[in-house]
Every structure is written in structure tokens, then in C-alpha cells.
Design brief:
- The chain is about 80% helix and about 0% strand.
- It is mainly alpha-helical.
- The protein has a single domain (about 5-185), classed as Up-down Bundle (Four Helix Bundle (Hemerythrin (Met), subunit A)), CATH 1.20.120.
- The radius of gyration is 17 Å and the shape is globular.
- The N and C termini lie far apart (about 45 Å).
Length: about 190
């Protein structure tokens, strides 16, 4: 039997494994299951943090893995969407660059014992929620037997606009993290 205090980290790890499952489902055009997987990952992202705080089981491993799991899943989905023209390559590239850069900054600061200086901010949580909402909206684009072709094009149009807004917020939060990281490095 799994102890309740392991559940938050297991939920986080399940999002990493969901990335592999996503690739299989996406490749074989199981789009409804892809949509359900996005919903699961968004819900588990909320639930793992909430449960860890509720049972007082926030761990260093969980705090480190949670944003990594989000990044792995979101980047996997966004790259998939670029491959079938649901997402813009430039916007997705900017998101990926930001995510890698902030992770690198965290790594550098952790070598100096300053990793806590780049804690996840409220706006960064909003950014992650917007990213999940964007990929969820775009997941409906190819479901032609549920949506008309015209509506599918509208979803891609609104998905692009939402991806643009998400990219702007993603870059802004990345900028704030980099500035805070530079300030911390100058103190050394």
C-alpha cells in the first residue's frame, strides 16, 4: 500500500511519464485521450502541491521535480503541436528557451546555495495554468468528428492568440527570474 505522504511526488512523477504516453497517443491520433491526459496533468499539478501542503509533506525533491515535470510535459505537447501546425514554431521556441534558461539559472544558483532565491512566483503559477489551458484548447482542433472544420480553424486562431499571450507572460516571468538571479549572483 502506498503511504499518503508519497502521493504528491508520485503525482509529479506521473506527469513525467505522461509525456511518453502523450507521444504514443499523439502519434496514433488518439486525440480524445490526449485531451484527457492534458486534463489529468493539469489536475495532478494542482493536486500534488495542494496535497503536499495539506499533509505537510513538501520535500526538496518535490519542489525541484514539480516544475521540471510541468516543463517536460508542456514542451512535449507544444512540440507535438508544432509538428501538425497547431502551434507557432517561434512562440513555442521562445517558451522552450525561457524554460531552459530559467532552469539553468536555478542550477547555477543552487551551486552557491541560493536556489531558494528563485522560488516559484504567483505570476509563474498563472503562467503554468495559462500554458495548460492553451494546450487544452489546442487539443480540440483536430477532433473533426466532434467539431466542424470551421470551428476547428477558430480554435486554432484563438489558440494562437492565447499562445501569444502565454508566451509574453512566460518571457516576462523569465525576465524577472533572470534579474533576481543576477542580483543574487552579484551578492557573491
Amino acid at each position: 500500500m502506498i503511504k499518503i505522504n508519497y502521493i504528491p511526488n508520485l503525482l509529479t512523477l506521473s506527469r513525467i511519464l505522461a509525456s511518453v504516453l502523450w507521444l504514443i497517443l499523439f502519434y496514433f491520433d488518439f486525440y480524445i485521450f490526449c485531451t484527457l491526459l492534458i486534463l489529468y496533468c493539469a489536475l495532478s499539478d494542482f493536486l500534488d502541491g495542494w496535497l503536499a501542503r495539506k499533509i505537510n509533506q513538501s520535500t526538496i525533491l518535490g519542489e525541484a521535480l514539480d516544475p521540471i515535470a510541468d516543463k517536460i510535459f508542456l514542451i512535449t505537447v507544444l512540440i507535438s503541436y508544432v509538428s501538425d501546425a497547431r502551434a507557432n514554431l517561434i512562440l513555442v521556441s521562445l517558451i522552450i528557451i525561457r524554460e531552459v534558461f530559467v532552469s539553468g539559472m536555478r542550477e547555477i544558483l543552487s551551486k552557491y546555495g541560493k536556489s531558494n532565491s528563485l522560488k516559484v512566483t504567483f505570476l509563474a503559477k498563472i503562467k503554468t495554468s495559462l500554458q495548460f489551458f492553451t494546450i487544452l484548447l489546442l487539443s480540440f482542433a483536430p477532433i473533426k468528428f466532434i467539431l466542424s472544420v470551421g470551428l476547428s480553424k477558430e480554435i486554432i486562431h484563438y489558440g494562437f492568440l492565447l499562445l501569444l499571450i502565454t508566451t509574453i507572460i512566460t518571457i516576462y516571468t523569465g525576465y524577472k527570474y533572470v534579474i533576481n538571479g543576477i542580483i543574487e549572483l552579484k551578492k557573491l
